[in-house]
Amino acid sequence: MLRAAHAEEAAHNPLIPALPDLLWGAVCFAIILALFWWKVLPAVKKLLDERAAKIEGGIERAEQAQREAAAALDKYNAQLAEARAEAARIREQAREDGKRILVEMREQAQAEAARITAHAQAQIEAERQAAVTSLRSEVGSLAIDLASGVVGESLTDDRRARALVDRFLAELEAEGDGARTAGARTRA
Amino acid sequence: MLEHDLLSALFPALPLAAGEAEFHAPSIEEFFPPVVLFEGTPFELNRIMIIRLIVTFAIVLFFYLGTRRMRLVPTRFQSVVELGLQFVRVNIAEDLLGKKDGQRFLPLITTIFFLVLGMNITGIIPPFNIAGTSVIGIPLLLAIVVWFAFVYAGLRKSPGKFLRNTLFPPGVPWYFYVIVTPIEFVSTFILRPVTLTLRLTMNMIVGHLLLVLFFSATSFFLYEWQDAGLMRLFSVGTFAFGFAFTLFEIFVAFLQAYVFALLTAVYIQLSLAEEH
Question: Is residue A125 assigned to a domain?
């Protein structure tokens, strides 16, 4: 028994592998290698890829949102500028329209005024003509009545009466002309 | 009978023969426990092999559950799993190899990191209390896999450039190649796997022996040595050391897993490099 133990002790060198040692070691190694190679590491790789894709997707989405926001802001600003320009254009238009209307109205008023003035002058002239005519006939009859009374002679005979009146008036006018000319000469 | 064997194989510290007052220093036999199942076949199962299978099952369970239904917004458990995988992917693979080549060799590097870490950490987890990597089989196997990986990476990229960069480093006068080339050959193709294997195995063996030493000494001083007297107080010191080294072993478990995975990436990176 003791000798057997000693013999065994002599046979055991820790640097020399026993066959079962190598075989079981190989079995353990093969199992664990297979586990990592076909099961664990592919699963982890897939997971890491998914995680990376998810993070990248998140960043991509955030960038997309930012781009959209920037686009919306640009569009809004453009619309605002357009609206401002439109407002300015309308204001300008209104100002021009106002000016034009003012000018037109002024012209209209002036024309109206001229028309009214011309009308009034024409009326005044007509009335003056009428007054001159009626005055001439009345002055004529008055003068004849007066002269009849003075000379005692009937001057009712139309032909002679008219001739008399005409001569009288002509003298009257001539006197008036001479007085006016004399006045003008004196002023000169 | 079989059940009893299995139990005593898993918990060797439990049934002690009473009345012995002799201190047993831990020996290398710690790493060659009795065979439990399939004795005489190449698939002999002893305690350490069973621990390896349990670790493998735990890793499969952990990562299967952690990546079964992955969500974009991770649950707490998924975050932990992702954190572990991300550490290997970003800090080891992509850091040294870049995105593209890091992706290519990621399954190998991830497997090495978590396999080594899981096998190491059993060194301080009761009731296992021995690292699955403390017998040379797995470290040697992984070193051979790494050897094929970096040779494959170099030959696949450009056979001529790989061999020239490796064996005839540029910038050395040609007559030095008589000395440099054999040194480079040995260091690249022989010493790399040897150092990978031994660094891990020896770290785990020594760590385990230290823990066994401190805790069995504590046990010895505390109650196995009947007439110890004041010597019992030594048990406080040995326990404190055992506790400290347990914490240190947690650190070593992570560190050795990181170193193994990192060197894998470094060797592959050197094979892919345009110039050294």
Answer: yes
ipTM above 0.90, yes or no: no
pLDDT in tens, A156-188: 667 777 787 788 788 878 876 766 666 555 555
Structural domain total, chain A: 1
Residue of chain A minimizing CA distance to B86: A44
* Residue A39 belongs to some domain of the structure: no
Residue A74 in domain: yes
Contact B110, A41 (CB under 8 A): yes
Burial bucket for residue B74 (CB in 10 Å: 0-12, 13-18, 19+): middle
Nearest beta carbon to residue A40 from set B43, B67, B135: B67
B157 lies in a domain?
Answer: yes
Q: How many domains does chain B have?
A: 1
Query: Hey, which residues 137-196 in chain B have their CB within 8 Å of chain A?
Result: 137-138, 140-142, 145
d(CA B169, CA B150): 17
CA distance, residue A71 to nearest chain B CA (Å): 33
Burial class (CB in 10 A: 0-12, 13-18, 19+), B222: middle
**Average of per-residue pLDDT values in chain B:** 88
Which amino acid belongs to residue B82? E
Domain assignment of residue B44, yes or no: no
> Among A86-90, B163-167, B222-226, which is the least confidently predicted range?
B222-226
Does a structural domain hold residue B243?
yes
B 107-146 residues inside an 8 A Cβ radius of A: 107-108, 110-111, 114-115, 119, 132, 135-138, 140-142, 145
Is residue B51 within 8 Å of B128, Cβ to Cβ? yes
Average pLDDT over residues B65-74: 87
Of all residues in chain A, what percent carry a pLDDT higher than 70?
Answer: 83
Residues of chain A in contact with residue B44, where contact means CB-CB under 8 angstroms, are 18, 20
- Domain of residue A83, residue span: 56-129
Domain assignment of residue B248, given as a range? 59-272
Residue B250 burial (CB count, 10 A) = 15
Residue B147 resides in a domain: yes
Contacts of B109 in chain A (CB under 8 A): none
Residues of B in contact with A14 (CB under 8 A): 28, 31, 135-136, 201, 205
Domain membership of residue A10 (yes or no) is: no
